[in-house]
Amino acid sequence: MADQQAQMVTKRIYEEPSDDDGCRVLVDRLWPRGVSKERAALDLWLKEIAPSPPLRTEFAHMRERFADFREAYLAELEQNPAVETLLELATTHPRVTLLYAAKDPEVNHARVLQEFMEARIKLLP
């Protein structure tokens, strides 16, 4: 895998699926409003990888809370067994798209997860 590491990208679930999405993984704990299962075109709904309900509630997608949220979510990910599932997908798919419903494309848990996973993927043999 060293020569051919998976690319991990993020995308809003409300955007149209595309052929270059690769393996599409919804990383939200709650199903996104107004999106049918057919339109989502998911390969996997990995709700266990999402921030814990108390952390999600505390963050409330408020930009000023993002730094603290990021730190707490990274700590959760260090202990989360669902990370192994994403690592397995990264070894079998050239591209994994992490789908999320948040409105802000920069201040959301999927970005933190992407950063975390990219660091883990670099450590793969």
Description of the molecule:
The longest helix has 14 residues. The chain has a four-stranded parallel β-sheet with strand order 1-4-2-3, with helices on one face. Strand 2, helix 1 and strand 3 form a beta-alpha-beta unit. The protein is 39% helix and 14% strand. The chain is of the alpha/beta class. It has five helices and four strands; from the N terminus they run E-E-H-E-H-H-H-E-H. The model has no long low-confidence stretch (mean pLDDT 93).
Mean pLDDT: 93
The CA-CA distance between the termini, in Å, is 6 Å
Proportion of residues in extended strands: 5-15%
What is the 3D form?
A: globular
Tell me which oligomeric state these chains represent: single chain
Helices and strands, in N-to-C order? Answer: EEHEHHHEH
User: How do the strands of the widest beta sheet line up side by side?
Assistant: 1-4-2-3
Number of strands: 4
> Ranges with pLDDT <50 over ≥5 residues?
none
- Distinct helical segment count: 5
Taking all Cα atoms into account, the compactness measure Rg is 14 Å
> What's the main sheet like?
4 strands, parallel
What is the helix fraction of residues, given as a range? 25-40%
Helix/sheet category = alpha/beta
